[in-house]
Amino acid sequence: MSNPILQTFPLGFPWQTQDPFLFCVYHLDHFPKGNGEMGPDPALLEGRSLGNDFNPNQAWRMYHGQTIPGFPYHPHRGFETITIVNKGYCDHSDSLGAAGRFGEGDVQWMTAGRGVQHSEMFPLLHDASDNPLELFQIWLNLPKASKFVEPHFKMLWHEDIPIVKEENAQIKVVAGNYKGTQAIPPAPDSWAADGVNDVAIWNIHVEADSEYTLPKTSSGVTRTLYFYEGSEIFFEGGKIIPNFGVELDPSQEVTFKVGRDKAHFLMLQGRPIEEPVAKYGPFVMNTEEEIQKAMEEYRLTQFGGWPWPYPDNAHDKDRGRFALYPDGTLVEKDTL
Questions:
Q1: For the chain, which residues make up each domain, given as ranges?
Q2: Is 2.60.120.10 the CATH number for 1-14+163-274?
């Protein structure tokens, strides 16, 4: 048998990915107590570059937020965003009129398709305690045939997402099939919607001082394991520390031993689209000419405009998790 580990690499910002994924970002912010208006204590903002705060040496960042942390309205075209919020909350608003508050294990799957604007703000809802945020955002490409599909917004609530519990591990099945456990169907025009493409997104947690075997799948797909929290893991012939990625041979199972601390992984897998990729900021097409057309169309149409009162739109502080869909359907999950 050949070595199932093809290569290892350090994790930057964003994380290095393989086709059909475009990139993945990991946000871990130890946000402080809120100020009553869903932002941090103003005294804590001293010395920050508001509007462009990405300082990795800080315990938390405002990103492009001025009063509430997050990302005010911005466009996307030609791909999908999959946002996994393990801790904290995200307030979503978009140009379709859709909105939502999700977190504490929820996942949002949004197909940008022909074009959409959205904002993603991280409201600090707790004034008497800290507001930690742990979030992955994954960009999954769309093939040329699907670049101009209608935008689509879908919520995968944490109560419904399958979680497989094994002797030493727990696997959250966001996409794909894990040993017979099938994820919730993704957005309908997604590359992940066709099982032939073998797209899988798993959040894997393995107990300390234990062993775990990642099952094999079909050849012809890319598979990357991201080790983002823990102390160390041991493969045959080597050791890997946190903040490293591992490119794997999907046709082989791989067994590793976990060191003194519980280990946390994100696994991304899928059949490559194998088409040219042209990227410019929030636009992903197949050619530079298509990128120029996307930019021109956005300047002219704003992809439908912005129906919300603020570019950094956030929802009422006391509101619980909810989703408002473009057709007016409202789903209320709970109250805070």
A1: 1-14+163-274, 21-160
A2: yes
Read off the amino acid at residue 55: N
CB 79 within 8 A of CB 139: yes
The b-or-e profile of 252-291 (16+ CB within 10 A means b, else e) is bebebbbbeebbbbbbbbbbebeeeebbeebbbbbeeebb
CATH architecture of 21-160: Sandwich (2.60)
Q: Which residue has the tokens 């999907």?
A: 250
| 326: alpha, beta or left? (left if phi > 0; alpha if psi -120 to 50) | alpha
31-58 residue pLDDT tens: 999 999 999 987 877 788 999 999 988 9
Which of the 8 DSSP states describes residue 151? Answer: P
What pTM was estimated for this model as a whole? Answer: 0.96
Whole-angstrom Cα distance, residue 109 to residue 307?
Answer: 21
Longest Cα separation, the chain: 60
Strands (E), 249-298: 254-258, 263-270, 278-280, 283-285
DSSP sequence for 191-251: GGGSGGG--EEEEEEE-TT-EEEEPP--TTSEEEEEEEESS-EEETTEEE-SSEEEEE-TT
Query: Per residue in 278-320, pLDDT tens?
Result: 999 999 999 999 999 999 999 999 999 999 999 999 999 999 9
* Displacement of CA 284 from its chain's centroid (Å): 17
3-state DSSP assignment of residue 157: coil
Tell me, what amino acid is at 65?
G
pLDDT the model gives residue 3: 86
Q: Which of 2, 219, 205, 206 is closest to 105 using CA atoms?
A: 205
